[in-house]
Design brief:
- There is one protein chain.
- By secondary structure, this protein is of the alpha+beta class.
- It is built from two helices and eight strands, in the order αβββαβββββ.
- A hairpin with a 2-residue loop joins β7 and β8.
C-alpha cells in the first residue's frame, strides 16, 4: 500500500516536473502574444485613422475645387426680357465719292438671351469729298453730275447672337462678349429721295457692367437708287460703334 502511494506520488511529481516548464512557457508566451496583438491592433488603428484623415482631406479639397470650378458656369450678363438703348456713330467704307459720318440711335427688345428685335435710324451729319471726286473736278476740270449722296436710313432688324465667349485681359481679368448677326428691311435716303432697302451685318458686344456694353459692327445697306430715269442696285458698307445700356439695370439667373 505504501509502495503504491509512493509510486503514485512519484508519478505525479514527475508529471508535474515534465509539464511545468511547458505551462510556464505557455504562461510567459501568452502575455507576449497579447502584447504583440495589441501592438498590431494599434498600428492598424493608426493606419485606419491616417487613411480616414486623408480621405477626409481629399473630400474637402474636392468640395473646394467643385466650388471654384463649375462644369457649367453662369453667364455674367443676361439679356432676356430687357430693353437695350444706345446711340451709335458710324462711317461708310466703300463710297468712292464721299466719306459720310453718321449719327443715330436704336432701341431693341430681347425676346431671349440670344434673340432680339431692334429699330434703328441714323442721319449723315458730315460728308467729306473723297479723292476720286476731287481728282475728276480739279485735275480734269470736269463736273460729275448726280453723284449719289447718302442722307439717312431707318431699319427694323432681327438680331441673333449664337456665339458667347470670353477673353483674358493681361492675365488679370476676364472680358465677356457675344457675336451677333443682324438683318432686316428698311428705308434708305439719298439726294434722289427715299428708297426701299435691306441690310445685313455682323457685330460684337463687350459686357462692361451688369447693364453697360460696348458694340462694334459692320453692316451692308442694299438699296435701289433711281436717277436720270435709270435704276440701279447700290450698296453702302458701314462700320459703327456704340455704347448701349440695358434696362432694367439688374437681372436674376434662371436655371433652364
Amino acid at each position: 500500500m505504501n509502495e503504491r502511494r509512493r509510486s503514485t506520488t512519484f508519478l505525479l511529481t514527475f508529471a508535474t516536473w515534465i509539464a511545468g516548464p511547458s505551462a510556464f512557457a505557455e504562461a510567459e508566451t501568452k502575455p507576449a502574444a497579447s502584447a504583440a496583438d495589441a501592438s498590431d491592433r494599434g498600428e492598424v488603428s493608426e493606419e485606419s485613422k491616417k487613411t480616414g484623415e486623408q480621405a477626409g482631406e481629399a473630400q474637402v479639397q474636392q468640395v473646394k475645387l467643385s466650388d471654384r470650378i463649375k462644369s457649367v458656369q453662369k453667364k455674367p450678363f443676361l439679356k432676356k426680357s430687357r430693353i437695350e438703348l444706345f446711340p451709335h456713330f458710324a462711317l461708310d467704307l466703300n463710297d468712292p465719292f464721299y466719306q459720310h459720318l453718321i449719327a443715330g440711335g436704336a432701341v431693341g427688345y430681347h425676346l431671349a438671351d440670344s434673340l432680339a428685335v431692334e429699330a434703328r435710324g441714323g442721319v449723315v451729319f458730315a460728308s467729306i469729298q473723297q479723292s476720286a471726286i476731287r481728282f475728276v473736278r480739279r485735275e480734269t476740270d470736269s463736273l460729275v453730275k448726280d453723284v449719289p449722296e447718302f442722307r439717312y436710313h431707318g431699319d427694323l432688324d432681327l438680331v441673333w447672337a449664337p456665339v458667347y465667349g470670353k477673353i483674358s485681359l493681361f492675365g488679370e481679368s476676364i472680358l465677356h462678349f457675344d457675336t451677333y448677326l443682324t438683318a432686316g428691311p428698311g428705308v434708305f435716303g439719298t439726294d434722289a429721295g427715299p428708297a426701299a432697302a435691306a441690310n445685313v451685318g455682323i457685330g460684337q458686344r463687350y459686357f462692361i457692367t451688369d447693364w453697360l456694353t460696348a458694340r462694334f459692327e459692320l453692316r451692308d445697306y442694299i438699296f435701289m437708287d433711281t436717277r436720270n430715269s435709270e435704276s440701279d442696285v447700290q450698296n453702302l458698307l458701314v462700320f459703327g460703334v456704340s455704347v448701349s445700356g440695358f434696362f432694367p439695370m439688374s437681372f436674376e439667373h434662371e436655371f433652364q
